[in-house]
């Protein structure tokens, strides 16, 4: 995976708030701040991992970047084009370049639609290939993701979880996108099948020069697949670093805790665990100051009032923390 | 030698379906000693949860135990009446489920649900049960337990709900706790809390535990002994060190090398080809042979015998016989 330093997608101060309504008149009472100010450059050919616990806004970030959610604030620049305020018609040529792989491939396939038809749909919308050409292309896609021609006429329920995820991948790459958001693509799969799908994603990236935004809670998979990793907490950026730096030298206390919490498949080595107390605070009422201060083992007084600045501590290594 | 709490011998559990009786568990044998944690590892569909439900007598209505015995403290659970089972369940044996939201009743308070087993099994008065409930919630690390007693499950976070489940399961001091993927639905930092909690409680209360999981990391954290199941069969059994450091069955090896290692950037991920067979699939010989990279003639025709690697480690694989023949030493046991 050669990563050149060319920015494919630039995300500037993106925010996504969901209104919470209540009372007799259904007035907007407050907002759930799902994504709260993310600024990122995604480079051509890289795999950028986004990790965090459930509710940290990592999936919403992926969906917002693809234009599946409207922006509350911020700017999206894809390949030099500002697409933040595009209408859906204006977005169409860009959507061809960006695709998504979902977590639950069964929920994202129409149970009444044959696999061949499901895969053909994107080709009908985005290309002007003739019907026999489309069929040919779909069969080529099926082969590419490790399925067979005879699967063309089958329905989603006839496939295993791993096979369905392969169909989801085939659909995402069918119109030759340059950028794919993978939202927990392997977390619903069994470990042996999970490894197959990871290999497939890697192979396809090499072959087509794809750029991935890989949203996951599984830090093992992320280390294996990603070049850079962004850690999120309550919709905000906590740490961003090249993968080896993040795993060998985690600097933000949350990243440390996250890494030390993973059960390692090896016996005998007892590690010192950074214990986090308590749960994730609600994103509708995030703590003032540093969002992590309520669970942070090294929090000081000013952490509860001042929001830490996003700063660089090493080449390509950024954190938001007062104390480190 | 510690005494055995649970002994499962040649358990066969089948399901009635349109295609006839389909075996989900095909002759599983294992035992759990006092104070020991046994992990049952395998992928979905391997029969690990059905094994647990068979022990608990909680099989769905179309499932039945057709063969084998489950001996718990000298009683055969497989032949017990539902009434007798009820007296045992939640009392001597209890279970924690994967999804605490579906296991807790949404319309009753936490307090009601934690008092219930105490009032039924230990015949405590409501007042005493309430006091004991608060103690239990404190034991599983829930802050301000007295207030939590009046809350409903939806008011708690996932980690808290699982702690409540653990408190309920432990309320009558069971001698055996079965935990079916108790941390799978939780985030890693919460998972770490729950694993630490289970490890602490097990020592405190000196109980035995069966932990069902697909996560090899969790196994390494918590297990004393491990059994690996594949397509309804126990294919390898051993102490946790043996399973991780000297796995013998190709499937166990495959499982270990298909989990990406967090600490090793150059970890070579080797997936197992193919997928788990369906319940109704007829496979001759070893049930793993279609996916096994080392399968040879014998694997296609004959179901493998169990071979002993050490006194604790046993493997169901014909490759062992080859090795035995080469080394000339160890002999096959008929376990």
Quaternary state of this entry equals heterodimer
Question: How would you write the strand order of the largest sheet of chain B?
Answer: 6-7-8-3-9-10-12-11
- CATH C-level label of the domain at 7-89 and 230-320 in chain A: Alpha Beta
Biggest interface: chains and residue counts?
A-B, 42 and 44 residues
Q: Report the end-to-end length of chain B measured between terminal Cα atoms.
A: 20 Å
The CATH topology of the largest domain in chain B is: Rossmann fold
Instruction: Tell me the strand order in the biggest sheet of chain A.
Output: 6-7-8-3-9-10-12-11
Tell me the name of the CATH homologous superfamily of the domain at 7-89 and 230-320 in chain A: P-loop containing nucleotide triphosphate hydrolases
In terms of DSSP E residues, the strand content of chain A is 25-35%
What is the CATH H-level superfamily of the largest domain in chain B?
Answer: P-loop containing nucleotide triphosphate hydrolases
Report strand % of chain B. 15-25%
How many beta-strand segments of chain B? 12
Report on the biggest sheet of chain B.
8 strands, mixed
Unreliable spans of chain A are none
Biggest pleated sheet of chain A? 8 strands, mixed
Helix/strand order of chain A, N-terminal first = EEEHEEHEHHHEHEHEEHHEE
- Individual helix count of chain B: 13
Which class best fits the helix and strand makeup of chain A? alpha/beta
Please give the radius of gyration of chain B in angstroms: 21 Å
Family (chain B): Belongs to the ABC transporter superfamily.
Protein name (chain B): ABC transporter ATP-binding protein
Domain ABC transporter (chain B): 6-256
Pfam families (chain B): ABC_tran, oligo_HPY
Give a brief outline of the structure.
In chain A, 29% of the residues lie in helices and 25% in strands. Chain A has 324 residues and is α/β, with parallel strands linked by helices. In chain A, the strands form 2 sheets. Chain A has an 8-stranded mixed β-sheet, with helices on both faces.
């Amino acid at each position: 995976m050669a990563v050149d330093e060319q920015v494919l997608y630039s995300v500037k101060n993106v925010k996504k708030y969901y209104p919470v309504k209540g009372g007799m008149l259904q007035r907007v009472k407050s907002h759930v701040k799902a994504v709260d100010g993310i600024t990122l450059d995604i480079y051509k050919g890289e795999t950028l991992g986004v990790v965090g616990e459930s509710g940290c806004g990592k999936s919403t970030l992926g969906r917002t970047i693809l234009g599946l959610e409207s922006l509350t604030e911020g700017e999206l620049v894809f390949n030099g084009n500002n697409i933040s305020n595009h209408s859906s018609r204006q977005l169409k040529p860009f959507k061809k370049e960006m695709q998504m792989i979902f977590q639950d491939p069964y929920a994202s396939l129409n149970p009444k639609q044959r696999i061949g038809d499901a895969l053909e749909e994107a080709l009908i919308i985005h290309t002007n290939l003739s019907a026999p050409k489309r069929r040919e292309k779909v069969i080529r896609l099926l082969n590419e993701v490790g399925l067979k021609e005879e699967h063309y006429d089958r329905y989603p329920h006839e496939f295993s979880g791993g096979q369905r995820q392969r169909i989801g991948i085939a659909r995402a790459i069918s119109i030759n996108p340059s950028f794919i958001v993978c939202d927990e693509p392997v977390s619903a799969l069994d470990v042996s099948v999970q490894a197959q799908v990871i290999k497939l994603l890697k192979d396809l990236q090499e072959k087509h020069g794809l750029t991935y935004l890989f949203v996951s809670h599984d830090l093992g998979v992320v280390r294996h697949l990603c070049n850079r990793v962004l850690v999120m907490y309550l919709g905000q950026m906590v740490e961003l670093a090249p993968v080896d730096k993040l795993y060998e030298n985690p600097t933000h206390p949350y990243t440390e805790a996250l890494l030390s919490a993973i059960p390692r498949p090896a016996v005998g080595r007892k590690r010192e665990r950074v214990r986090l107390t308590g749960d994730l605070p609600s994103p509708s009422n995030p703590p003032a100051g540093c969002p992590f201060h309520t669970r942070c083992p090294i929090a000081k007084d000013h952490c509860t009032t001042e929001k830490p600045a996003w700063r660089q501590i090493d080449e390509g290594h950024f954190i938001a923390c007062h104390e480190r | 030698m510690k005494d055995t709490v649970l002994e499962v011998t040649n358990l066969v559990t089948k399901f009635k379906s349109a295609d006839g009786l389909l075996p989900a568990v095909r002759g599983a044998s294992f035992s759990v000693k006092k104070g020991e944690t046994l992990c049952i590892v395998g992928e979905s569909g391997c029969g690990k949860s059905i094994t647990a439900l068979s022990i608990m007598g909680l099989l769905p209505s179309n499932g039945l135990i057709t063969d084998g015995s489950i001996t718990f403290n000298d009683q055969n659970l497989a032949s017990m009446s539902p009434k007798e089972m009820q007296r045992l369940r939640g009392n001597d044996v209890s279970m924690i489920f994967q999804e605490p939201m579906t296991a807790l009743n949404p319309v009753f308070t936490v307090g009601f649900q934690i008092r219930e087993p105490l009032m039924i099994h230990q015949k405590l008065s409501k007042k005493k049960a309430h006091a004991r409930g608060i103690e239990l919630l404190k034991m599983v690390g829930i802050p301000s337990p007295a207030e939590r007693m009046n809350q409903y499950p939806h008011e708690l976070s996932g980690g808290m709900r699982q702690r409540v489940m653990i408190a309920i399961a432990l309320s009558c001091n069971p001698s055996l706790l079965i935990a079916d993927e108790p941390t799978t639905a939780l985030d890693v930092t919460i998972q770490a809390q729950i694993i630490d909690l289970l490890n602490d409680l097990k020592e405190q209360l000196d109980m035995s535990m069966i932990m069902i999981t697909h996560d090899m990391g969790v196994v390494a954290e918590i297990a004393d002994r491990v059994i690996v199941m594949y397509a309804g069969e126990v294919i390898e059994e051993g102490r946790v060190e043996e399973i991780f450091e000297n796995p013998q069955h190709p499937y166990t090896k495959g499982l270990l090398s298909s989990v990406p290692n967090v600490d090793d950037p150059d970890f070579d991920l080797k997936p197992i080809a193919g997928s788990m067979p369906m319940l109704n699939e007829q496979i001759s010989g070893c049930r793993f042979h279609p996916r096994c990279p080392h399968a040879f003639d014998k694997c296609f025709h004959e179901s493998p015998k169990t071979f002993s690697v050490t006194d604790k480690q046993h493997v169901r694989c014909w490759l062992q016989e080859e090795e035995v023949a080469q080394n000339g030493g160890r002999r096959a046991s008929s376990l």
